[in-house]
Structure to design on (438 residues):
């Protein structure tokens, strides 16, 4: 197949019942983005199956703000054996909803950043959120549904990573994926003082590797290869954004490389309500260039041994930070500017 | 027999936590585990294969010497086959 689409990320709403300071898509209860009908999403997904679509991620905002549509999309994917996952804050689901969700062949990710109610509710600016999230996770797990907890790492929960991992894995019987908070969306303005500095990034990496050995198969993180020792590459679940095979569809039908389009209009490539999605995927020059990757990456990534593998980890983050999909990975560039990037991985 | 690195075509990163071999031409990277790094470092020190085998047998007394010999010879053959290393005729 010429240019297969492996994954579609559906940002079905920018609305959310929360307004978290770290939200990279700036979701909030009063978001005004138009929302296309669920049938339009389904029509687009049907066309993408012709391009080899294998997985759909349903996210937002909070996707269960559009509860009926979220379940309809889950049904559609499940009926066609298309892998499907859903990311949720876990606070809007009734017991009946959770029982229904547990019956679907879908992966479920639920956000949880602290092991205690006071800290978590404060971080998410949502009183009572912790209790609702824990209830959600427990009920899904009790039904045999594997749950991945998503933790955003900032300065003041860095020291709580171990405690949170223990709580999630040993108490809740889920697994956990840690992501360092990126300077994107609301985080760039409201959490600037809580973003990890270079020393803290290395501390986070050490902690992740230690946790991965303590809890094999239960810890994941998106990390640049240069920050993981060679012998630990199969210990921790690291990954990169496979941008050449991903398409992002936003609440109003806009097409972007991912949800970054919600805050970066320059990344909008078309719209599913007026453009043929197959033609757009195959012929849009930005998408073609990202697939062909004819340019070298800028900054430290262009000098690194792993340039071809990491591919700056997240082009969306590079775009936000540097205005260029080929910008360096901001974590690596920060380390490099402080002389803390592993020099033995620099080729030039 | 001694072996040397083919550093014209490949770049090697050797650490205490394993290593990598990077091919300049196409940017591909292959991992090396800690034992592989240890053998490569001994080759870089100019040690012949028999001495490498002897040193590893001392380091790993619980492993049969013949097993170590086979593993080292297979490893070095593979490294030569891939072009990462070359027999050192000097």
């Amino acid at each position: 197949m010429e240019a297969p689409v492996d994954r579609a990320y559906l940002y079905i709403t920018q609305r959310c019942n929360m307004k978290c300071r770290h939200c990279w898509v700036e979701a909030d209860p009063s978001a005004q983005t138009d929302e296309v009908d669920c049938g339009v999403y389904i029509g687009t997904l049907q066309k993408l199956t012709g391009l080899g679509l294998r997985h759909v991620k349903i996210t937002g905002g909070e996707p269960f703000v559009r509860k009926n549509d979220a379940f309809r999309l889950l049904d559609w994917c499940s009926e066609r054996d298309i892998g499907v996952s859903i990311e949720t804050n876990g606070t809007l689901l009734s017991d009946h909803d959770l029982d229904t969700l547990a019956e679907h062949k879908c992966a479920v990710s639920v956000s949880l950043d602290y092991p205690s109610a006071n800290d978590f509710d404060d971080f998410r600016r949502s009183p009572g959120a912790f209790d609702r999230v824990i209830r959600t996770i427990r009920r899904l797990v009790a039904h045999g549904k594997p749950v991945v907890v998503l933790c955003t790492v900032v300065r003041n929960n860095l020291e709580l990573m171990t405690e949170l991992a223990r709580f999630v894995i040993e108490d809740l019987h889920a697994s956990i994926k840690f992501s360092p908070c990126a300077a994107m969306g609301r985080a760039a303005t409201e959490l600037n003082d809580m973003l990890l500095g270079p020393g803290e990034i290395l501390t986070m990496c050490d902690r992740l590797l230690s946790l991965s050995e303590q809890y094999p198969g239960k810890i994941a993180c998106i990390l640049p290869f240069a920050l993981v020792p060679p012998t630990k590459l199969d210990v921790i679940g690291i990954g990169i954004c496979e941008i050449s095979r991903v398409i992002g569809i936003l609440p109003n039908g806009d097409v972007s490389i991912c949800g970054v389009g919600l805050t970066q209009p320059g990344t909008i490539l078309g719209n599913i309500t007026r453009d043929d999605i197959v033609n757009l995927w195959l012929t849009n020059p930005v998408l073609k260039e990202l697939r062909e990757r004819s340019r070298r990456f800028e900054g430290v990534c262009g000098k690194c041994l792993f340039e071809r593998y990491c591919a700056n980890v997240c082009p969306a983050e590079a775009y936000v930070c540097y205005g260029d999909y080929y910008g360096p990975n901001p974590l690596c560039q920060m380390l490099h500017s402080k002389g803390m990037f592993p020099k033995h991985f620099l080729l030039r | 027999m001694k072996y040397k690195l083919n550093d014209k075509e490949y770049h090697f990163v050797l650490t205490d936590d394993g290593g990598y071999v990077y091919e300049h031409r196409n940017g591909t990277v292959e991992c090396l585990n800690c034992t592989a790094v240890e053998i490569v470092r001994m080759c870089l020190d100019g040690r012949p294969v028999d001495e490498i085998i002897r040193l590893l047998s001392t380091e790993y007394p619980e492993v049969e010497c013949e097993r170590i010999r086979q593993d080292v010879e297979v490893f070095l053959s593979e490294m030569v086959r891939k072009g990462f290393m070359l027999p050192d005729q000097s």
